[in-house]
Amino acid sequence: MKNNDLDFKVLEAYTRDIGRGIARIDQNTMDTMSITIGDIIEISGKQKAVAKCAPLYPADENKKIIRFDGLIRNNCKTEIGNQVFLRKIKTAKAETITVIPTESIPAINEDYLADALESVPLILQQNIMVPYFGGRLTFQVASVIPCIDDNMEAVIVTQKTIFHIQESKISFPEEGDISAKRQFILHQFWRLEDLDKEEFDDLISRMNRFYKELKNKKDLGKP
Questions:
Q1: What pTM does this model have?
Q2: 100 and 142 in contact (C-beta within 8 Å)?
Q3: What is the pLDDT of residues 181-203, one digit of tens each?
Q4: In Å, how far from its chain's centre is CA 120?
Q5: Class assignment of domain 92-168?
Q6: Angle at the Cα of 88 from the Cα atoms of 83 and 94, rounded to 5 degrees
Q7: Region for residue 102 given its phi and psi (left: phi exceeds 0; alpha: psi -120 to 50; beta: otherwise)
Q8: Which of 20, 37, 96, 153 has a CB 3.0–4.6 Å from the CB of 145, allowing a cystine?
Q9: What secondary structure does DSSP assign to 37-74, as a single string?
């Protein structure tokens, strides 16, 4: 745990917050962490998830609790009653996002995803749900542009974000640019625990080749 991480007991979201990507903590903690309403926080259980931060109702103040819905709990692999850590993170506006349906879906206008998810924070491997004709469609985030790294830890969906729905898993872009290859490696890294032995060995091999490619480009750029 980093010095600016704090741990909280997980409780169910308020009814009005379900499906809105909101996590609530007490106002005193928000002040201590320099968090304002709408700032993005990273929630760490067995995995990581991101959410918009908002204050708890007055009756829940000073109880060291955090409230968020089942989708966020699933994304960070935690349950009600467990402890999670949180911290404020840096974000950028999403330019392009590729998602993979978790099940068979009907034909859908990709522009609808930007409308349905406007202002929602996303990271790689996060599951997202959008309402659709009385039901919900679930997708997993496969890649984002700009790339997520130490300087930008999540992206925010805007009306200008372009969504691509991909029907199958991402494959390594043999002829792709550096950014596309980096996205693939990050995508595989975030699902590391789900990889079988063959996929893991393939990832290590591609990382080694990618490192050599980066090193060669760097060396060629030297005077």
A1: 0.72
A2: yes
A3: 776 777 677 667 667 788 788 88
A4: 10
A5: alpha beta
A6: 115
A7: alpha
A8: 96
A9: TT-EEEEESSSEEEEEEEEPPGGGTTS-EEEE-HHHHH
